[in-house]
Design brief:
Helix content is about 65%, strand content about 5%. The chain is of the alpha+beta class and about 1900 residues long. It has a 7-stranded mixed β-sheet, sandwiched between helices. The two termini are about 95 Å apart.
């Protein structure tokens, strides 16, 4: 194939690039032979001219087709070269987030620097048992391949993990060991796999450190051998370490740390147990602060120390030894802080009392003086003498650091040794798998001895790798019998010889170390002289004489010679070692003891005292001779490396190459430069080169035929596909050297598959173009015809429309003319009339204006005259008044002057003496006259006294008469006084009435004005009310519609809530069943293990008897043989006693826990009931209290109204009496017309007022009653409102406050519109209560009649209002009565339902109660919505809450009761009656020797008996043997009725029941159960057997229920069947035991089906092409996957359907219950869907559009199978929903946001992790498909981030749905059953 055929326009190539290493470009012009350059266009659109090398003329590498990009195996690429490998790794790592890739036999692992969820137990289970090429690349796939080859080939295996520091070697090795520990388990109870994994944190703590490239870099190499026994279970492990980096103990570069253990101790220095170590912060010690990076982000060193200590404890290193180790490590830190100072130029000294040295000596138990002496001195020995030499400060410091490194190395070796001791086991090792975690090729700016040894080890490993790859290639070619051509590959043996051969680098280094004055410079000169001219791989740097360069397989490395000799010698001052050996610290002495015996870490703890040691065997790998002790480090490393290579060569190697993607530890960041360096160094590119040198692409004939069928013509297709492929390939590829035909495969050279893919793509493209051309032609013609028809139709309709428009225009024109005529006439006439009316109006207005003006002028003149008259009169009066006042003033002044003169004269006379004399003389005369008068009076007095004495007698006689007259006069006086007062009051009242009359006149005028305004307001209000009425009607319609919608929504919401609650209840029930059935499974496993142990111990030489335990009867144990002797039976029974002791104790403990739990649940239930009762009582009391307060309030209101009424009546009577008794003769006297009218109006008003008050009271009481009823209906609102009302009423202290409250309540119910009129009525009544007025004056101008009319109007309005309220209240009362009647009916119905539910079984009782309650609440809700839409919302919420609470409470109680019943039935009586077996006799020799089922207390019944099978007791063993153990299910299923053994056994049980023989019933049931278990154990892998006994066990269980006599199970019985019920015994507890047995059989059945279906699922559902030609086969690499073409022996979908048919037909033949068959099918389909989906998620090659179509077609076939079997409603289809959605996800568009939204709404059964995984794995098979962009996947993740779901990626294939056994009664009559002779049951007698 010429280059011009490939390097054509649009071909893509790789060109070198400085930044990206390789850059993709596209040819913009065809290449022709002889061209010196290529015309290229880069991906960014830049044009480039690429010059070719004029010497080699090598063309750039071609790029692989897009469909090959992202392949799992790099060898599957058509073009195998460096840029293709780099690009494939980058696409998988960056775009698909895949870190593992195969490269032939190598697994390339790229460190993601991020924790990925791909290492869980579910992933381990998914890879377990799978072929390596069948799943996506993974470290678990390599581990599984090693484990499988170890078991298959009986050959030891090795997994070699290599890579740079920070590439993830340690983590990969850790996950490989975890896989072995999980898959294999341990062979003993010591949990060896946990110990193997526990060694990792220990080795990481003491051997790992932070470097600039890795936070957890392993600074040593290790090889762990994991041992397995003959059953391939882990029994132990052994670890070998290589080249610990001791220099890190004393020196760290910038941004690096010492070993983790030092920082862990410093971080935990605050702990009490570490106080004596005197540690502090890591920055305080020289050995931990040099790197200036003491903390690692995200790592808690103190917490890590806890993990390390736990690992030590798990490996048996006790706490005392751990503290000893930490003591040594702390001593190293203190030793590093010892400061050595210069004493002089040739000596040094340590200052006295150095704190750190003192602490070091205390910790290691040595003297301060000795250690200080030998840190600064050295002992030199010669042949004749020994002398001590001082050391300079630098040499002393180096000696101190050398001692620290030596101590740490010894400690490291001691820990490794004791870890190995902890992992050693006594079980013989059958094989092992070694995991090598070793450093990769290293090159730094300064490379020293450590890098030299590391690269030397990698040279050896690379040589072994090359030979292994070459060997595999050779084996493949020989296997396929194709001509073998020698492949040239790089052999690095010359480089190895340069290092390890005689006179090699290491040999010369050892020789120089033995020289007395050897130095690094002299050693370098020897290297130059020896190898510079003789070896091309050795070079000398130009600018240095102290370095050398070696050409390694990966790169050239320059080594600096400084320090090589010192590091190779690894010398330590012997005197310092002697001082340490003399330590009092036992552990330190043990570290430095070469020939002595070491102590065990689990023995006595090391102390500071004596040196007691226990002898153990020394390590064989360590030579203890003094000569061997002097071996150099290089020699030791070479020997250990040689041993490692011998071990690896004796095993089958598996390679894991770890790649570090970048130097900045950024997650999923890829640096091409760093990646290429590591790919070259780790041998991946060498593997590619070896593979590319031969035939890297390999296809089977079937795959080639399927993929390139499109390149063949029909005549080329022959029946022999091999010959067809030969013929076609010879035509397509002319150069026969480009391919070879093997036995089963076609081998292609590099690039040939790409050429074939190009031909295939061109052929498909041409076919697509032809299809497009044809389709486009058809679409265009169809579009043209459609347009032509449309045009004709449009023309027809257009012309018709135009004709119609013309006719319409003509009609409109004529009509317009007529309209215009009449319109113009109307306008003219209207204009004339308007003008005429305007003229008349103007004349009228003008004439009236002139008349008004004349009238106004006359009126003004008249008024002016009047004004003049009054003004002139006022002026004359004013003048007269002024004159008069002036005259009066003048007279006053004159008279005042005269009076003053007279007064002055009188004052002068009064002062004179003569005046006083005249006065006194007149007084004397008067006194004398008075004296004479007194004398005269005295005489007269005497005469009067005499007269009085005479008259006294007369007075006495007249006194009596006068007294009577006096009484009469007094009565007359009182009467006169009362009359006077009454007249006075009447006069006053008359004056008041006159005043009020005047006020009333004014109010009358005001009322008239108000009536006019009120009339206008009323009219306006009426219009507004009409508008509001219309709005209200509209709102009413809207509200009705809204209510209907809400009702519908509420109904749907309740239905959804009920469905969700039901689903939740079903889920909880299924979980409970799953837990219980899992317990049964675990019990069965323990039982089998117990039986195995029993059989093992019962063998000769292993029998053990223990008489201290009593015999127990267990329903779950049985013996293995019937014919065993009596002694054997006794031994088995004793063994059972011994083995059941622990089980008994556990069961007793569990029983106590269950009883406590039961008691706590019972107490909780009682507490809940008490709380409920208290709440109910509290509610009732509060309700009664509220009702009592309300009644009290009503009574107070009634009393107050009655008292007020009586008072008014009394006042009215007094007024009437006073009016009638009045003697006035005026016109207003009683009997006058006015008085009678007024009195009648007053009486009627009082009566109306009294009636109204009574009606208000009645209506108020009814309203309160209605509120109470509503409150009783709604508890929450009731308690709130009643409490508030009671509180308000309770605040009213006395009757006055109650009265005021009532008046306020009464006033609030009155309309404000009539407040003024009610006031007038009140005034009128107060007037009438007074004395009789003057009615004539009162009735002036008709005022009394107006008052009467106003009062009547008021009364009528009040009456109308009261009637309206009465009607509304009557309707409410009727509704309340209806509700009361409904409540009574509901109560009766609930009582009936309760009575019915009590008759149901417990299982159906809860469901019936829930159903009734849901129905009741739904009806209440609907009624409430219909009656009161406004309150429906709150009622809905309350009802829903009540419903949910009730359902939760019922479900909790039901679950608790069921759980307690099941557990107590199974465990309580078993434990309580374990000693009952001692009282029973020994079993007869003919009877079964199995341990019977636990004794059950069987109550007796007294019933009639009919029909049964009789057998003798000694025939019981024969019955069980013939009917169970030796019965062939196939014959019974074909020839006999289904379930015949179950019917026979039940008829035998009936006979024992008839005989009332409880022992016979017990032994028969026990033997039956034990025999079924035995046959299942013996033939548990046979589906027919398991299915047969599952059907018969269920039938036997149904018979026990059907004939138990319980009403629940007898509903479907005939009268004859009811007569066959058991009469004496209740076998309820045996039904529970048999139900558990049925569950165990069901689980065994599922296991059998899974074992049969498991190998078929992946091949049939995923790999097989059900629709041929839909999915093309892509090229495969060296990791050969299972062929997707149906070859011979390959499972297809038809295989799965045939197997499902076989399962279904077998179960139907055996008479399995239909419901049970549905559950089995559901489980089968779940397994199919889960296994298929899990494999889809772990196989990138299966995630394509065509595979999604295949999966959907396969699922449709499964659904069709379900339809054929009438199983669509069994729930099996729903279990396939995740698989269906995954297939749809593969086929939908995955580009836009709308696509992302559709995917999120479609994939509801898939988790977010599964959706993202499928999108990442999506791989185009053809060039027409496109990959999913990273942005689209991020969009999906963003949309799904709010989902609450499990992060688990894979489905649990081990999950088993909980099984139920619905009751299925049989219609078969027992008396009609015939026993066939083939069963050999002739000893049975029909009764």
């Amino acid at each position: 194939m010429a280059a011009s055929e490939l390097y054509t326009k649009c071909a893509r190539v790789w060109i070198p690039d400085v930044e990206d290493v390789w850059k993709s470009a596209e040819l913009s012009k065809d290449y022709k032979n002889g061209d010196a350059s290529l015309q290229l266009m880069l991906e960014d659109g830049t044009n480039l001219e690429h010059k070719l090398d004029p010497k080699t003329k090598n063309l750039p590498y071609l790029r692989n087709p897009d469909i090959l990009v992202g392949e799992n195996d790099l060898t599957a690429l058509s073009y195998l070269h460096e840029p293709a490998v780099l690009h494939n790794l980058k696409v998988r790592f960056i775009d698909s987030k895949l870190i593992y890739t195969y490269c032939g036999i190598v697994l390339v692992a790229i460190n993601p620097y991020e924790t990925l969820p791909i290492y869980g137990t579910d992933i381990i289970n998914a890879y377990s048992g799978q072929n390596m090429g069948d799943m996506d690349p993974h470290i678990f796939a390599v581990a599984e391949e090693a484990y499988k080859q170890m078991a298959r080939d009986e050959r030891n295996q090795s997994i070699i993990v290599s890579g740079e520091s920070g590439a993830g070697k340690t983590v990969s090795a850790k996950y490989a060991m975890r896989y072995f520990a999980t898959v294999s388990g341990s062979a003993s109870e010591a949990n060896v796999e946990e110990k193997v994994l526990a060694s990792n944190p220990i080795m990481e703590a003491i051997g790992n450190a932070k470097t600039t490239r890795n936070d957890n870099s392993s600074r040593f190499g290790k090889y762990i051998e994991i041992g397995f026994d003959n059953r391939y279970r882990i029994i132990g492990a052994n670890m070998r370490t290589y080249l610990l980096e001791k220099s890190r103990v004393v020196f760290q570069a910038d941004e690096e740390r010492n070993y983790h253990i030092f920082y862990q101790l410093c971080a935990s220095s605050h702990l009490p147990e570490f106080k004596n170590l005197k540690l502090s912060n890591a920055n305080d010690f020289l050995y931990t602060r040099q790197g200036c990076s003491p903390v690692i982000d995200g790592v808690d060193d103190s917490k890590e120390l806890g993990t390390t200590r736990h690992a030590f404890s798990l490996l048996g290193i006790n706490e005392s030894y751990q503290m000893g180790l930490f003591q040594v490590l702390a001593a190293i830190l203190h030793l590093g802080n010892v400061q050595i100072k210069d004493k002089d130029s040739d000596s040094s000294i340590i200052p006295t009392n150095n704190h750190h040295l003192t602490k070091f000596c205390e910790l290691v138990g040595v003297t301060y003086e000795d250690m200080a002496q030998w840190l600064c001195h050295r002992k030199l020995k010669t042949a004749s003498e020994t002398y001590i030499k001082t050391l300079p400060r630098l040499q002393a410091t180096n000696a101190r650091d050398a001692l620290s490194k030596h101590i740490y190395a010894k400690l490291f070796n001691w820990i490794v040794e004791h870890v190995n001791k902890a992992l050693i086991t006594n079980i013989k090792q059958h094989s092992f798998i070694g995991v090598l975690d070793i450093y990769g090729f290293e090159t730094f700016e300064i490379n020293s001895f450590e890098q030299f040894c590391i690269n030397y080890a990698n040279e050896k490993l690379q040589q072994q790798f090359n030979m292994h790859v070459f060997k595999l290639e050779q084996e493949e070619y020989m296997k396929e019998q194709i001509p073998w051509t020698l492949i040239d590959f790089y052999d690095n043996q010359p480089c190895i010889n340069l290092i390890e051969a005689k006179m090699g680098v290491l040999d010369l280094l050892d020789e120089e170390c033995r020289m007395p004055k050897g130095s690094d410079d002299s050693w370098a000169q020897k290297l130059y002289n020896t190898h510079l001219k003789t070896c091309s791989l050795f070079e000398k740097p130009r600018m240095s004489n102290r370095a050398f360069i070696i050409q390694h397989f990966a790169d050239k490395v320059e080594y600096q010679c400084d320090g090589f000799l010192e590091k190779n010698k690894d010398t330590v001052n012997e005197e310092q070692i002697k001082v340490l050996k003399a330590s009092k610290f036992d552990l330190l002495v043990e570290l430095f003891q070469d020939e002595g015996k070491a102590t065990t870490p689990t023995g006595q703890p090391p102390g500071m005292g004596g040196r007691t040691r226990l002898s153990v065997k020394p390590d064989k790998s360590r030579d203890t001779s003094s000569k061997e002790h002097k071996k150099t480090v290089g020699c030791q490393f070479r020997n250990s490396l040689q041993m490692l290579m011998e071990t690896l060569n004796a095993t089958t190697p598996h390679y894991v190459r770890c790649i570090k993607p970048n130097d900045f530890k950024q997650a999923f960041s890829f640096d091409p430069k760093r990646a290429v360096q590591q790919l070259r160094a780790c041998g991946v590119l060498e593997t590619i080169r070896i593979s590319a040198a031969g035939f890297p692409s390999r296809w089977t004939y079937q795959e080639f035929f399927s993929r390139y069928r499109v390149l063949m013509k029909q005549k080329d297709v022959l029946s022999d596909k091999k010959l067809t492929c030969r013929n076609v390939l010879e035509k397509l590829v002319e150069d026969q050297d480009k391919y070879q035909f093997g036995k089963t495969k076609i081998f292609f050279r590099a690039g040939q598959v790409a050429y074939l893919e190009k031909l295939r793509a061109d052929k498909l493209r041409a076919a697509c173009i032809r299809i497009q051309k044809t389709i486009r032609c058809w679409l265009a013609r169809k579009k043209y015809l459609r347009k032509r028809d449309a045009a004709i139709t449009i023309q027809r309709f257009t012309r018709g429309y135009q004709a119609r428009c013309l006719a319409k225009f003509m009609r409109r024109t004529q009509a317009a003319t007529i309209i215009q005529k009449y319109q113009k006439m109307y306008v003219a006439r209207k204009r004339y009339r308007q003008k005429q009316a305007a003229a008349l109006a103007i004349q009228t207005i003008l004439r009236s204006y002139m008349a008004r003006q004349k009238y106004q002028a006359l009126l003004r003149e008249h008024k002016a005259v009047i004004i003049q008259k009054h003004a002139r009169g006022w002026l004359a009066r004013c003048w007269y008044k002024r004159c008069l006042s002036s005259i009066v003033y003048l007279q006053c002044c004159t008279r005042r002057m005269i009076a003053r003169r007279e007064l002055k004269k009188l004052k002068i006379e009064a002062r004179s003496v003569e005046h006083f004399k005249k006065l006194n003389k007149g007084m004397e005369n008067k006194i004398m006259q008075l004296q004479r008068k007194i004398d005269e009076q005295t005489k007269e007095n005497k005469s009067v006294n005499e007269k009085l004495t005479g008259l006294e007698n007369t007075y006495t006689t007249e006194s009596e008469r006068l007294r009577g007259e006096l009484g009469r006069l007094r009565g007359v006086e009182e009467e006169a006084k009362s009359k006077g007062n009454q007249v006075k009051c009447l006069l006053e009242e008359l004056e008041k009435l006159k005043k009020e009359l005047r006020t009333t006149k004014q109010e009358k005028k005001t009322i008239e004005d108000w009536s006019q305004s009120y009339k206008g307001e009323m009219e306006k209000l009426v219009s507004e009310l009409k508008d509001q009425n219309g709005l209200l009607k509209t709102e009413k319609d809207d509200l009705n519609r809204l209510i209907q919608e809400q009702n519908q929504q509420m109904t749907e919401k309740m239905a959804r809530a009920i469905a969700a609650e039901t689903q939740q209840l079903e889920t909880d029930l299924n979980e409970e069943r799953s837990r219980y059935q899992n317990l049964l499974t675990e019990h069965l496993r323990l039982e089998e293990k117990f039986d195995d142990l029993k059989e093992h111990i019962s063998k000769p030489g292993h029998r053990r008897t223990d008489s201290t335990h009593s015999s127990n009867e267990s329903e779950y144990t049985f013996n293995s043989e019937f014919a065993e002797s009596e002694d054997a039976s006794h031994a088995a029974e004793d063994l059972t006693r011994g083995m059941d002791t622990s089980l008994t104790l556990k069961l007793q403990k569990r029983l106590k826990e269950l009883e406590q739990e039961k008691q706590s649940l019972r107490n909780e239930l009682e507490n809940k009931e008490e709380q409920f009762q208290r709440a109910r009582a509290r509610d009732e009391s509060e309700f009664k209290k509220a009702r009592g307060a309300e009644l009290e309030y009503e009574s107070l209101k009634r009393q107050e109204l009655e008292s007020e009424n009586k008072k008014l009546k009394h006042n009215l009577a007094d007024m009437r009496k006073s009016l009638l008794g009045s003697a006035a003769s005026s016109a207003g006297a009683p009997g006058s017309p006015a008085y009678k009218v007024l009195l009648d109006q007053l009486n009627s008003s009082c009566e109306e007022l009294e009636v109204r008050k009574e009606e208000v009271l009645i209506l108020r009481s009814q309203l309160v009653s209605q509120k109470e009823a509503m409150q009783h209906k709604d508890e929450k609102e009731t308690m709130t409102e009643v409490a508030v009302h009671v509180e308000d009423v309770s605040k009213l202290k006395d009757a006055d406050e109650l009265k005021q409250a009532y008046i306020g309540l009464k006033d609030t119910n009155r309309s404000p519109r009539f407040a003024c009129k009610r006031l007038e009525v009140r005034h009128l009544l107060s007037r009438l209560r007074s004395a009789a007025p003057d009615f004539q004056k009162l009735n002036e101008d008709g005022e009394l009649w107006l008052v009467n009319q106003g009062l009547k109007e008021t009364v009528r309005l009040l009456e109308h209002q009261l009637q309206t309220q009465r009607r509304s209240y009557d309707s409410e009362v009727e509704s309340l009565r209806g509700e009361l009647q409904n409540v009574k009916e509901e109560n009766n119905r609930q009582q009936q339902l309760l009575a019915q539910n009590l008759q149901l079984p417990p299982e159906a009782r809860i469901e019936a109660s829930l159903q009734h309650e849901i129905t009741r609440l739904t009806n209440e809700n609907l009624e409430l919505v219909a009656d009161d839409p406004a309150a429906s919302r709150e009622a809905r919420v309350i009802i829903l809450r009540r419903m949910v609470d009730l359902m939760e409470q019922l479900e909790k109680q039901d679950r608790t009761i069921r759980k307690l019943k099941k557990q107590l039935k199974v465990y309580s009586k078993r434990i309580g009656e374990m000693g009952a077996g001692q009282a029973e006799g020994q079993t007869s020799p003919g009877q079964m020797v199995d341990e019977p089922i636990r004794p059950v207390n069987i109550p007796r019944r007294e019933k009639d008996f009919q029909g049964m099978l009789e057998y003798k007791k000694e025939d019981e063993m024969k019955l069980v043997k013939n009917l169970i153990l030796e019965l062939k299910p196939r014959g019974v299923a074909v020839n006999l009725i289904p379930g015949l053994p179950a019917y026979i056994l039940f008829m035998c049980v009936r006979h024992a029941d008839y005989l009332n023989d409880d022992q016979k019933v017990r032994t028969l049931l026990t033997s039956t159960i034990n025999s079924i278990k035995k046959i299942l154990k013996k033939r548990g892998d046979d589906f027919e057997t398991v299915s047969f006994w599952l059907a018969n066990t269920c039938r036997f269980l149904h018979c026990l229920k059907q004939y138990s006599g319980d009403d629940v199970f007898m509903k479907h019985n005939t009268s004859r069947q009811n007569e066959h019920c058991l009469s004496n015994f209740d076998l309820t507890e045996y039904r529970s035991v048999i139900s558990d047995l049925a569950i165990q059989i069901y689980q065994q059945l599922i296991k059998c089906m899974e074992n049969t279906l498991q190998p078929m699922i992946v091949s049939g559902m995923l790999e097989h092409e059900t629709i041929q030609g839909v999915s093309g086969v892509k090229p495969t690499g060296l990791r050969k996957r299972t062929s997707s073409i149906a070859d011979e022996g390959t499972y297809t979908l038809d295989s799965i359907l045939r197997q499902l048919n076989a399962f279904h037909s077998t179960m139907c033949q055996h008479g399995t219950d239909p419901e049970l068959i549905k559950q089995v099918v559901k489980q089968q389909f779940y397994v199919i869907g889960a296994v298929t989906l899990n494999n889809l998620l772990l196989r990138k090659d299966m995630c394509s559009w065509s595979k999604g179509m295949q999966i959907r077609y396969n699922v449709s076939q499964l659904e069709e199978w379900l339809r054929d079997k009438n199983l669509m409603n069994c729930g099996a289809k729903e279990t396939l929903e995740p698989l269906i959605q995954a297939a749809q996800l593969l086929q939908v568009k995955k580009k836009t946001d709308e696509d992302a939204k559709a995917i999120c709404s479609m994939c509801l059964a898939l988790t977010t992790a599964q959706i993202v995984k499928v999108l990442n794995l999506y791989t185009p098979v053809n060039e027409f498909e496109e990959r999913v962009s990273v942005s689209f996947i991020r969009n999906i993740q963003t949309r799904l981030r709010d989902r609450c779901e499990s992060p688990q990626l894979l489905m649990d294939t081990k999950m088993i749905y909980p099984i139920t056994f619905p009751f299925n009664p049989s219609s078969l009559a027992l008396e009609s059953i015939q026993i066939p002779s083939s069963l050999n049951l002739s000893f049975l007698t029909r009764v």
